[in-house]
Amino acid sequence: MQQKAPLVSRDMLLPFILLTVCFAAWGTAANMTDPLVKVFSKIFTMSSLQSALVQFSYYGAYFCLAIPAAFINKRFSYKTGVLTGLGCAIVGAFMFYPASQMMTYGFFLAALFILAGGLSILETSANPYVMRMGSEVTATRRLNFAQSFNPVGTNLGVFLAATLILPQLNQATADERSNMSADQLVAVMSAELEAVMVPYVGFACVLVVIWIAIAMMKTPAVCQAQETSNKVDFRATMGRLFKNRHYRFGVVAQFFNVAAQTCVWTFTIQYVMEAKGGDEISGGTVLQYSMLVFLVSRFVMTWIMGFIRPAALLTVMSTVATLLCLCMIAMPNDTGVWALIGISACLSLMFPTIYAIALHGLKDDAKFGAAGLVMAILGGALIPLIQAALIDNYSTALSYIVPAGCFLIVASYAVFDLRSKQRA
């Protein structure tokens, strides 16, 4: 059994609460974005591969901005990084208004890129910040607990998409749209894109409030003491990280974990429509159920980690996720849909657990180490394109072989960590 220690001390409680709100915020943004693949596919009459550029822009921004975030954290502080990230995300979210007026796909992709770039800086800063707010013994559990509020945001994001965006889609097919007059088509697209814009502009207003609250927050003394070295020796730091086999494998595992998560949720609506029939709204309902399972499971997994080693639990859940993906492929019906929902329970612990395991023992190198793990979110930009190509050429059910392979790699890292700890 793991050593008992408080997750957060009293003087860090308020900063910790404010940071957990940030975890919920980027969960909201990410899962409002997942349905946009299907939404833009319909509005702009595109293939699954073309519409998957939504995720390419979103997660590509995470890759591009993680290293700049590490420099901000190293040169200044984690708090500065959090405020910078929130500021960029606010700008990107507000850009959805002019994008809806311009009615061009590229403008929306640009807005998503800026929004996600800000969230990349925010996440690169907030995750290690939370790990510093207490004993290293409880760092993995503390991060899992903070990340438990991320699915609160993901559920809110799916709810906003399901209630404010998906019901506003015109049910006209691609052929029917092609037969509309130019004025009719513009009117339909304008109404649909306005529905996309509203929740993002509202999200920007909420982020402004969070930014003000954190700006007024006093940085805990312990965290200040731990951030005494502002000298940036990028080459030496990256050299040490690259030589660290445990960390390198952790980055690879995070790449495929985020890829799997993005693949599973991005194409949930398509899978449900193919397996059970129905429309985007019924698919959105299943996605909402998945997010609720994810939410409850995150808290359950955090509790279980008080008794079972995180890497052991990660091994079990990633293996189960692989089997559930194979079930979806073999039985694209009600059984496959239930398996799809069950995968969210397995996903609930993966990101924070891999993150904390990979950063363990890196000390000050963790600032750039955190950037590498956030850059691994690029998996969410690249791998869904492969799955989308399989959907276009074969079927949605068969495409879930992609996340199945990703989960196997995550399981391999968990086993590697267990064995390395046994040898130590």
Defining key terms:
0% strand, mainly alpha, 424 residues, Growth Hormone, Chain: A
- Termini, distance in Å? 18 Å
State the major sheet. Answer: none
User: What is the N-to-C order of secondary-structure elements (H for helix, E for strand)?
Assistant: HHHHHHHHHHHHHHHHHHHHHHH
CATH topology description: Growth Hormone, Chain: A
CATH superfamily: MFS general substrate transporter like domains
Brief summary:
The chain has 424 residues and is an all-alpha fold.
Structure write-up:
Its main location: membrane. It is a multi-pass membrane protein. Keywords: Cell membrane, Membrane, Transmembrane, Transmembrane helix. One of its GO terms (cellular component) is plasma membrane. It comes from Alteromonas genovensis. By secondary structure, the protein is mostly helical. The chain has a single domain (10-423), classed as Growth Hormone, Chain: A (Up-down Bundle), CATH 1.20.1250. The chain has 23 helices and no strands. It has helices spanning 13-33, 36-43, 48-51, 53-75, 78-94, 96-102, 105-131, 139-147, 150-165, 174-178, 182-215, 221-226, 234-243, 245-266, 268-276, 280-304, 310-330, 334-347, 350-359, 366-375, 379-393, 396-399, 401-423. The mean pLDDT is 84.
